[in-house]
Each structure stands twice: as C-alpha cells, then as structure tokens.
TrEMBL record:
Species in which this protein is naturally found: Pseudoxanthomonas wuyuanensis
UniProt protein name: PmbA protein
Domain Metalloprotease TldD/E C-terminal: 242-450
One CC-aspect GO term: cytosol
Limits of the Metalloprotease TldD/E N-terminal domain: 38-102
UniProt domain Metalloprotease TldD/E central: residue ranges: 130-235
Lineage: Bacteria, Pseudomonadati, Pseudomonadota, Gammaproteobacteria, Lysobacterales
Length: 452
C-alpha cells in the first residue's frame, strides 16, 4: 500500500460519552412515563464515497447520519419510535410516541428485554477502530489509479467504474436492566468493475477489497489488475451439457451456501415455520468432518462484538460440529417463541469460520476430473421452506483438473439438504472480505442445466 494517513485528532470517546448520557436521559424519561422496561439505541455515522468512470469523477458523497431509537414495554405490550432530532422537545415526543403505541398494542408473551443475568459485563478491546484521514482528492486519486490499472490492457474496452469508501460508526445500546454498551468501528473499501469484449460478446467482472483498517486493503493497482484478469478470463464463454457434475464454488460465492444455512436456522424463520430445517437442532446436516464456529470476540473481525443487539454477552461457540447442527440463531423474542434461550444472535451472527479439510483452490480444482467452477451466482431461486435450490451461474468448465473454458447461461440446481450432505471438501483459501470465513467448497454432485 501507499503511505497510510490516520487521524490525529480523535473525539470518538467523547462522542460516545454524549450518546451514553443521552441514552440514560431517554431511559429515565421512559420510566417517568410508566414503562416497566425500556431500551435505547443511539448511533452516529460519517462516511465518504467516491466513484470514477473512464478516468473521470462521477460522484463524491459525504454523509453524516444520526439515529435514536426508543422501545418501551408496558408489561407485555411493546412500542417503538425513532428520531434524528436531538432537541429536547423532539426526544420527549419520541418517548411519548413509543409509550402511546405500547398502550394500544396487544399483549405478546414473548416480548420484553433479554434476561438481566445474560447482559454482558466484560468489554474486551477488539481492535475495530482504525480511522483513515481520507479527503475527497485523495479518494479520487486512489479510485483513478485503481481503474487505470484495470484498463491498462487494451482488451478492456469499457468500465463500470472504480470506487473508494470510508466510514466510521459509533453506537450505544442501553436498557433498563442498567446495561450500557458502547461500540465504535471503521470500514474502508476499494473496488473496480470492468467490461471487455465487443457487442454481444461483452463480459463484465470486477474485484474489491474491504477491511476495518486501510492497511488491510489490497493496493488500488492490484485490485484493478485483478478485476481485469477476471473480466478477460470470461471472454468467449460457452455453455455446458446438461447433467449431474461436481460443482466447485469459489470462495467468494461459497459463503452464499453458508448464508442459506443461516437463514434456515434463524429464529424468525423457525417460529414462523418457514424453514426447511425445522426441528433439526442435534441432527446431522453435513459430512462428519464439517464444522462451523462463531467467533464474536475475534480481534479485528468484521463482525466482532462483546454483546448482541439486546446487550446479551456473546461467546465463542460452535454452530456445527462433526456435521451436526448444534443450535439455532436466536434473539430473546424468537427464543421465547420457541421455548428456548437466546444464543446472543439478536441482530445476526458474528464472525463465522468454516473449518477447512483440504488445501487451497488449486488442490480442489486439480482434484476434479470434470465439472463446473462457479464464480458468479444470479437470481434468487431458493425456496426457504423446502430447500429447493435453482440459480443462474457463470464460471468455468473443468476438464482433467484444469480450467478448459468460461461458461455462462447455465443453471445449477438441487435441494440444499442434499447439497450440504454432498460437500466433499472445504479449501483453506478463505475469502476474508466477509464475516463468513470460508474457502472454496466442492459439492460432489449437482444438476447443471445448460445446452442440450
């Protein structure tokens, strides 16, 4: 990377203190209005985003957002209201509106704060705060350098542009159990999307890098060059004969398979009985070597946190061990609906790591005699209730362990329960750009629908 500039003046702690004091005032106001329980979320976010295309600046956007959310409970009745206005009269009106809503709602036996004994009491330093003193001129220079590196090959005839973004967020969550949690985080990114070829033979692809610290990003030039390599590799695609073949999901799309698992074991889908994995906790869903761990306290993790959206303490825990689903993903509401206890997943999962049982991408590719390498998925053809899976795909046809030609215009299909069971290998080539850490995934057999 080029020289890194970090902020020298950092007032984030003082701003967090102000948000904390504000949350306490709102909780007290809710108590005065008769609420039996209350919770408050306060947040601030600032950011800069720049987009360039064909060597010219398209957009420069600077944002500064603020949000205050108040939820109150009158017994088992709940009301919520929000505002971005910090004037006292607006804050008072927000609390009063939440209380008015609660008074007119029906009782819900599952509503209420998470249990007080589950609140987080330890707040380790997770290394999530890395401000970048990025101004618009510097951001434009980086984006232009990224795109120029990608367009250096004359076969790259066009561009969808390059972008640079940087954001800082501060948040405070507090509730009437006496819990107050403060978080601050940064995220930065550089990306590029390019177009190669002519007429109906044009192909588009790209690459991006993201991280909590600028030092974690790939250089703009390497991102542009990789975007060009990926785009050029897709020129002159062919289809594939319909049949059942091994399918290798490249790491950047493999996490979508894990995403379907997460959706199916989330509390909301389960208590609504809208999941193909109903009543599957304790059941074997994957091969007996397969494992997924949740690592919420990982230093500099993209989704690290000492507490969830309800203040419940997070902890390192398996989601899948020896191929067996160990638990669901629950907040306090969905847990009560299911007669279970929260798993500290209100607001979603934290960092997940799928354990590898194989080497890198080259090893997995070389082990395929004939099949499909998927590098892009399209469409939303997944039935969450039945697990039926059918999505458009593009990538490369593999013969004798080597890439033979690019393919597109195909569909891959199966049922996710069967797909999970047919996973033969997970590579160690983890794509670090997501809080779902997984390498390439080889599925032994799926339906590939192409030309007859």
């Amino acid at each position: 990377m080029n020289a890194i500039t970090v902020q020298t003046h950092d007032d984030s702690q003082a701003r967090l203190e102000r948000l904390s004091a504000l949350s306490q005032r709102l909780l007290e106001r809710a108590r005065e209005c008769g609420a039996s329980q209350a919770e408050v979320s306060c947040s601030e976010e600032t950011g800069l985003n720049v987009n360039v295309r064909m060597g010219a600046v398209e957009t420069v956007e600077s944002n500064r957002d603020r949000g205050i959310g108040v939820t109150v409970y009158f017994g088992k009745r709940k009301g919520s209201a929000s505002t971005a206005d910090l004037r006292e009269e607006s804050l008072d009106a927000t609390v009063e509106q939440a209380c008015a809503i609660a008074r007119y709602t029906e009782d819900d036996e599952a509503s209420g704060l998470a249990e007080p004994e589950l609140m987080a009491r330890e707040f380790p330093e997770l290394d999530l705060w890395h401000p970048w003193a990025l101004d618009a001129d510097r951001a434009v220079d980086l984006a232009l350098a990224c795109e120029a590196a990608g367009r250096a090959d004359p076969r790259v005839a066009n561009s969808d542009g390059a972008s640079v973004g940087s954001s800082e967020s501060l948040s405070v969550y507090a509730n009437s159990h006496g819990f107050i949690g403060r978080e601050r985080g940064t995220q930065h990114s550089i990306g590029c999307a390019l177009i190669a070829g002519q007429g109906e033979g044009m192909q588009r692809d790209g690459w991006y890098s993201t991280g909590l610290a600028y030092a974690d990003l790939e250089s703009p030039e390497s991102i542009g060059r990789r975007a060009a390599e990926r785009t050029l590799a897709r020129l002159q695609p062919r289809s594939a004969a319909t049949g059942e073949y091994p399918v290798l999901f490249a790491a950047e799309v493999a996490r979508s398979l894990i995403g379907h698992l997460l959706g199916a074991v989330s509390g909301g889908a389960l208590y609504r009985r809208a999941s193909f994995l109903l009543d599957q906790a304790g059941q074997q869903l994957f091969p007996d070597w397969f494992a997924i761990d949740e690592l919420p306290l990982l230093r500099r993790g993209l989704r690290s946190a000492a507490f969830d959206a309800e203040g419940v303490a997070t902890r390192t825990a398996p989601l899948v061990s020896d191929g067996v689903l160990q638990r669901y993903l629950l907040g306090s509401y969905s847990a009560r609906k299911l007669g279970l206890q929260t798993t500290a997943n209100a607001g979603g999962v934290h960092n997940l790591m799928v354990r590898a049982n194989a080497g890198g991408f080259a090893e997995l590719l070389g082990g395929m005699s004939r099949g499909l390498l998927v590098t892009e998925l399209m469409g939303q053809g997944v039935n969450a209730v039945t697990g039926d899976y059918s999505r458009g795909a593009a990538g490369f046809w593999v013969e004798n362990g080597s890439i033979a030609w690019p393919v597109d215009g195909i569909t891959i299909a199966g049922n996710l329960k069967e797909v999970f069971q047919r996973i033969e290998a997970v590579g160690n080539d983890v794509d670090t750009r997501s809080h779902i850490g997984v390498g390439s995934i080889l599925v032994g057999k799926m339906i590939v629908a192409g030309e007859e």
